[in-house]
Design brief:
291 residues; six-stranded parallel β-sheet; alpha/beta; Rossmann fold; 16% strand
Amino acid sequence: MYKLIDGKKTANDIKREIAAEVAALKKSGGKVPHLAAILVGNNPSSETYVANKVKDCEEVGFESTLIRFDEKTEEDLLLKKIRELNNDDGVDGFIVQLPLPEHISEERVIEAIDPEKDADGFHPVNIGRMVIGAPGFLPATPYGIVELLKRYGISTSGSNCVVIGRSNIVGRPVSILLSRKGMDATVTVVHSRTRNAGEIIRSADIIIAALGSPGFVKADMVKEGAVVIDVGTTRIADPATKSGWRLAGDVDFENVAPVCSYITPVPGGVGPMTRVSLLKNTLYAVTRRKG
């Protein structure tokens, strides 16, 4: 019988830990962590994510700021706001919510963020620090995945781990984190040009599915007792729901779950851990400067 990896419960546990640290900071006269977010346009998924982020901040005692821009906002105006946040001593960490409108370069936006306030952990400086194992801000979703594995006592040392997808946000960074000293997994990254992908995935002790293709991972691709982490969150039409849509993961949960030892649901798996990782990075920014 498989065990469900409850990301929502784990994230709530971590939020209680963070809240206790924030309370101690306040008591000692320290700075209350302040996390800001910039939202360009009104992408429904981004709206939901940012609203939840604001709620998370309230729960742990953080200050939070939401800065909204119109869909047609020019890149220069957005970059100006980023420079303002970089120079605002009151803000400890901030994110620019992705995806951005097509006329704005995500690369230029990410590189404009001060690496010391990079709550998402996407800046090339922080990616470089992660690669060499130096202290820094970790990409939020990979950070959350690693934390889930640790908190559920799932051993990665010597394990054969297959990451499906090679995005800069999830696939590549999580493959690096899992292969670092202390995690010690043997990692293979499967992507659209991989030959015999199904055969490679079937050999995995741990599968991280992060390609954004609903139901891609089928039961016959998973070996008995494997751990399956589903990062996919694709909105698909569902007239049976009140909203008219539902979130679908990259894993065919109903058929894959009976084969697994552990599996994350969608929603309620990796998603809450991504948000709590933003809080952890922001708290780290405060304690790092304090130290």
